[in-house]
UniProtKB/TrEMBL annotation, chain A:
Gene3D superfamilies: Aldehyde oxidase/xanthine dehydrogenase, a/b hammerhead, Aldehyde oxidase/xanthine dehydrogenase, molybdopterin binding domain. The keyword Oxidoreductase applies. The keyword Oxidoreductase applies. One of its GO terms (molecular function) is xanthine dehydrogenase activity. Keywords: Molybdenum, Oxidoreductase. Residues 152-172 are annotated as: Disordered. Residues 29-145 form the Aldehyde oxidase/xanthine dehydrogenase a/b hammerhead domain. Its EC number is 1.17.1.4. It is an enzyme of class 1 (oxidoreductase). InterPro entries: Ald_Oxase/Xan_DH_a/b, Ald_Oxase/Xan_DH_a/b_sf, Ald_Oxase/xanthine_DH-like, AldOxase/xan_DH_MoCoBD1, AldOxase/xan_DH_MoCoBD2, AldOxase/xan_DH_Mopterin-bd_sf. This is Xanthine dehydrogenase YagR molybdenum-binding subunit.
UniProtKB/TrEMBL annotation, chain B:
It comes from the Bacteria. GO terms for molecular function: 2 iron, 2 sulfur cluster binding; metal ion binding; oxidoreductase activity, acting on the aldehyde or oxo group of donors. Residues 3-79 form the 2Fe-2S ferredoxin-type domain. InterPro entries: 2Fe-2S-bd, 2Fe-2S-bd_dom_sf, 2Fe-2S_ferredoxin-like_sf, 2Fe-2S_ferredoxin-type, 2Fe2S_fd_BS, Aldehyde_Oxdr_Iron-Sulfur, Beta-grasp_dom_sf. Pfam families: Fer2, Fer2_2. The keyword Iron applies. Coiled coil: none annotated. It comes from Actinophytocola algeriensis. Pathway: Alkaloid degradation; nicotine degradation. Keywords: 2Fe-2S, Iron, Iron-sulfur, Metal-binding, Oxidoreductase. This is Xanthine dehydrogenase YagT iron-sulfur-binding subunit.
């Protein structure tokens, strides 16, 4: 048999190609519908009332002036809100319990746990009426003693305990003694402020009850968690809850958890019997969703005269809310990056009467790398050694902490490629030695590192006799280009043309996808797609044999010869016992593999800054990032994602800072005018290079690109600022006042 | 207290009845169903709500609808421009939420530049400046993109302006 008898479309090379996004048209014409764009007839609008004190009991809520406003449908407080099930206690044995943003049962309690907690919600015909009514509500509090000041509370931080998925501390050898006896050493303290994700789409929920069933349009990074959480809180059978999240207007970790707005939109719709949209105000985003914890860190490094590290100590203090939070793995990269003879890492947390801190792009690594990489630069300077050379002298063959194997590690190559492309050798090493008119010029480097994860994903794959392929999976599109990437992965796996593949996603009616977090979605869904494609091909081969067709024929040909209109396969089990078994299998594989390998994306960040010698203004003028993210699925979207991480890192380095009032615990710059995210003029051309070799232990060789891009950025900038000015700024952000 | 208005939006006359306090943004989205225009901050700080009024860019969250009765409003739904394809080609967006505002703002900005308007990045304000990347960046700095697609946005505008 030959293939010449039946013409087939020749598949183009698809994996890695920089194809345009499949949702490019809808996103550039306004047709893409986000969670606030569903205009149900009779849609009502909701607005929140936030507590203005950090810890209290509500003694009285006067809603009369709000109730009497024409157009108001409901004013809901803890006096009249429907009773909800409390949020479940978070446990690693049941991952969806991690969905709850906080432990507070909103409007089911008279207790206030942080300044900004929602204490009432108003539902009205229009947003203006709802907002006006919300402003007319008067809340009286009995204030209780509150702990709100990070700096003041720092001495009370306690060491973090180790758990299955989060290591609070660890050591190898005696780093304290080694530091004391080191030829050369640095012992430094760093701080990073609270930061907020500030996705341009504020968290928005449109909730619709159809009898006892609930449909929720919610911009989320975890459709399944959101669905399970809502079913539990509102005591609904899981099948009666549908969560739709087709387009998410940015998230960066901020839409991983179910925060108050989602719950209260559903409450508002339940009370009024109308579809309700609750779009948080920008201020509401700061008040009711958790940002990145502030941190203080100590990094102490000891080395011999040749620059070989003998001691590495990295400790951190971060914040948790009394109502919940997440212990960021601030010191984690210090276990993996440098071949120090003695290592000591330990995290500490303090607890405040604040909202739970959330996860934000590369939680831990983002801020931890600032301290570690700035300290490495200081040590290099002390040793009179090039900072890249210092890193290469300490580049380990195995994981320094425990001798595990690296699944892949392209750092040497990344630095070599980067140094050449960036013309690193052109710099003069002495600080303040490069000048261009009034601008002091400096260059800096830092290492990026982010662990790679794979989570369970369920897909169905359906091949039609006309050659079309439909892949269905409830994954998430927040800007990564997920649907585009999975179109490519499917076309690659089945060797079919790109335009024959259609992907359905973003809906809990689909097979359960992984959450979009930990840079894991691409690898997780790719694995399921590869499995499905293998299954489909096997089924087709069997079908071909039965019908005396060559298995080498095009899949569609085999189907049509067998008289079939389509064939569908499913991978994973997202219900009942199969789902539980799948979760157990997932956890055990994960832990087993983690015992053997360190899997991570890594990279080398190179930057040039110019500092105004009169005003201290810092401009980032050149950037090159060379990354090892394993296989690149789409060269265009992967580069964009890495760039996006770098841009957010530039923000963290130079401008971003959530300011919390030390007396009241209130965020004082809860807006985009006084919280400074990077704008067009702040961002130079960012060059990205990916090494591109697959990771042998990861599905399709993919390590993930969402987070590694931000890691090391603030460190590289701080190092470049020192090179330009001779000044070390160890407290982010590096604002001009710190350079005068 | 409500006002009956007729707004000209994307070439069509649309009657609406609104309170005088209602923003042009909320009228477009909630009354006229034109949800392509986005709300990012409702305070004039992010640019996501940018639309064109007689070809000039306007932050529709800070504009009162009642003041725009005799203006020709263009929202993203009414835009058909090569710039949109250039955004796709240069990957000038990720999540897409700020994109309608970026596109409308860029169209207004290009018109401003054509009319000889200088910017803070213009070296000599007596001349019509070249539309360099620095000029584009300065003139587009009112439109935030948290995904960080700035490089692609500037490239798309640069290519379209040529």
């Amino acid at each position: 048999m030959t293939q010449t008898s039946i013409p087939t479309r020749t598949p183009q090379r698809v994996l890695g190609e920089p194809i345009d996004r499949v949702d490019g048209h809808v996103k550039t014409t306004g047709a893409a519908q986000y969670s606030g764009d569903h205009l149900y007839p009779d849609l009502a609008h909701a607005a929140l009332v936030h507590a203005t004190v950090p810890r209290a009991r509500i003694t009285h809520i006067d809603t009369t002036a709000a109730d009497s406003l024409p157009g108001v449908h409901a004013v809901i407080t803890h006096h009249n809100a429907p009773r909800l099930q409390p949020p479940p206690k978070p446990t690693l044995l049941n991952l969806p319990t991690l969905a709850a943003g906080t432990s507070v049962n909103y409007l089911n309690t008279d207790e206030v746990h942080w300044n900004g907690q929602p204490v009432a919600v108003v539902v009205a015909d229009s947003l203006d009426i709802a907002r006006e009514a919300a402003q007319r509500i008067r809340v009286t509090y009995e204030e209780l003693p509150a702990t709100v000041d990070f700096e003041q509370e720092e001495p009370n931080a306690v060491p973090q305990k180790n758990s299955a998925l989060s290591d609070g501390g660890g050591k190898k050898g005696d780093a304290v003694a080694a530091l004391k006896s080191a030829d050369v050493s640095v012992d430094l303290r760093f701080s990073t402020p609270m930061q907020h994700h500030n996705a341009i789409e504020p968290h928005t929920t449109t909730a619709v009850w159809n009898g006892k069933a609930l449909t929720v349009h919610d911009g989320t990074q975890h459709i399944d968690w959101t669905r399970r959480h809502l079913a539990l809180r509102f005591k609904l059978p899981l099948n009666d809850v549908r969560v739709i999240s087709t387009f998410v207007g940015g998230a960066f970790g901020g839409k991983t958890n179910v925060w108050a707005g989602t719950i209260l939109a559903v409450v508002a719709a339940k009370v009024t019997g109308r579809p309700v949209k609750l779009a948080l105000s920008r201020e509401g985003v700061y008040r009711t969703t958790g940002g990145r914890t502030p941190s203080t860190q100590r990094v102490a490094l000891g080395a011999d005269a040749d620059g070989q590290l003998t001691a590495l100590i990295h400790t951190s203090v971060t914040q948790m809310g009394r109502v919940g939070g997440y212990a960021e793995q601030v010191v984690s990269q210090s276990r993996h990056l440098y071949d120090a003879e003695n290592i000591l890492v330990q995290q500490h947390q303090l607890t405040l009467d604040s909202i739970a801190n959330g996860v934000m792009r590369a939680p831990g690594e983002s801020i931890g790398s600032f301290a570690l990489e700035a300290a490495m630069d200081e040590l290099a300077h002390r040793l009179d050694l090039d900072p890249i050379e210092l890193r290469m002298r300490n580049e380990p063959d195995r994981n320094p902490m425990d001798g595990k194997l690296f699944a892949r590690r392209g750092l040497r190559e990344a630095y070599a490629r980067g140094a050449e492309r960036f013309r690193w050798a052109d710099r003069t090493p002495e600080p303040r030695s490069m000048r261009d008119g009034r601008w002091l010029v400096g260059t800096g480097v830092a290492t990026a590192f982010h662990p790679a994860w794979v989570f369970p994903a369920n897909v169905t794959m359906r091949l039609s006799a006309d050659g079309d392929v439909l892949v269905r999976c409830g994954f998430h599109e927040m800007g990564m280009g997920a649907a585009t990437a999975f179109t490519q992965v499917t076309a690659h796996a089945l060797r079919v043309p790109l335009d024959s593949v259609r992907i359905e996603y973003g809906d809990s009616d689909l097979p359960i996808g992984p959450g979009a977090g930990g840079s894991a979605q691409t690898a997780s869904v790719s694995r399921a797609i590869l499995d499905a494609a293998a299954k489909l091909k096997k089924d087709l081969a069997a079908l071909a044999r039965r019908n005396n067709t060559s298995p080498d024929e095009a899949p569609a040909t085999i189907l049509s010869r067998a008289g079939r209109t389509h064939h569908e396969v499913a991978v994973g089990a997202d219900r009942g016992i199969g789902r539980l078994a799948g979760q157990v299998r997932f956890m055990s594989t994960l832990l087993r593999e983690r015992r053997k390998y360190v899997k991570a994306a890594c990279g080398a960040q190179f930057c040039e800054v110019r500092v105004d010698s009169d005003t201290g203004e810092v401009r980032v003028t050149r950037w090159l990032g060379v990354f090892d993210i394993g296989t690149v699925v789409n060269a265009k979207t992967a580069a964009s994602q890495l760039r996006g991480g770098i841009v957010m890192g530039i923000g963290a380095a130079l401008g971003e800072e959530t300011l919390v009032d030390g007396h009241t615990g209130r965020i004082v710059n809860a807006n985009l005018a006084e919280y400074h995210v990077p704008v067009h003029a702040d961002v130079p051309r960012i060059d990205i290079e990916c090494l591109g070799d697959p990771d042998p232990t990861m599905p399709l060789g993919v390590l993930g690109a969402g987070e590694v891009g931000i890691v090391g950025v603030a460190g590289a900038i701080a190092n470049a600022v020192h090179h330009a000015t001779g000044l070390r700024v160890r407290d982010l952000p590096i604002t001009l006042d710190k350079l005068l | 207290m409500t006002h009956d208005l007729s707004l000209r939006v994307n070439g069509t006359t649309r009657p609406v009845t609104v309170e005088p306090r209602v923003s042009l943004l909320d009228v477009l989205r909630d009354h006229l169903g034109l949800t392509g225009t986005k709300k990012g901050c409702d305070q004039g700080a992010c640019g996501a709500c940018t639309v064109l009024a007689d070809g000039e860019r306007v932050l529709s969250c800070l504009a009162l609808a009642v003041q725009y009765e005799h203006r020709e409003i263009t929202t993203i739904e009414g835009v058909a421009d090569p710039l949109q394809q250039a955004f796709v080609k240069h990957d000038g967006f990720q999540c897409g939420y700020c994109t309608p505002g970026q596109i409308c703002s860029a169209l207004g900005m290009l018109a401003e530049h054509r009319s000889g308007m200088p910017s803070a990045a213009t070296e000599d304000v007596a001349t019509t400046p070249q539309l360099t990347r620095a000029e584009i960046q300065e003139r587009m700095s009112g439109n935030l993109c948290r995904c960080g697609a700035y490089n692609g946005i500037v490239s798309a505008i640069e290519e379209t302006a040529r």
